[in-house]
Structures are given as structure tokens and as C-alpha cells.
Amino acid sequence: MTEGIYEELVTQLVTQKINSIGDINFYINRSKLDKEEASSVLSKHLAHTIKNALNIIKGENQIEL
Fold it and tell me: Can you tell me the distance from the alpha carbon of 63 to that of 41, in angstroms, rounded to the nearest whole number?
């Protein structure tokens, strides 16, 4: 499967952000992932991020997604 323009732009943006942070402030571990592993890692990260966001707003009566 080849990357489309959207995926390429997202990849470039993420790379620019990581490079702008620099190694002084954070330890950044980079490694290659195969396609099956990448989808698992991304979905776990998104699930964790969404859970944290929902925990922050849990006092609200209504949640819009």
C-alpha cells in the first residue's frame, strides 16, 4: 500500500514537530515498525489519549464527539 498525499503531509508535520522539540527537553526513541505493528501502536495511543480527554471532561453532563 502506497502513502497518499494526506499521509505524507501528516508524516512530514510530525517529523517537523519532533525535530523542533529537540533532544534536550525529551528523550525521543525512534524505531521502524512493520505495518501490522504500526496499526496496533497507533490504536493503543489513540485509545489512551481519548480516555484521558474523556476523564478530564467527565464532570460535564453531555459529551459531543
Answer: 26
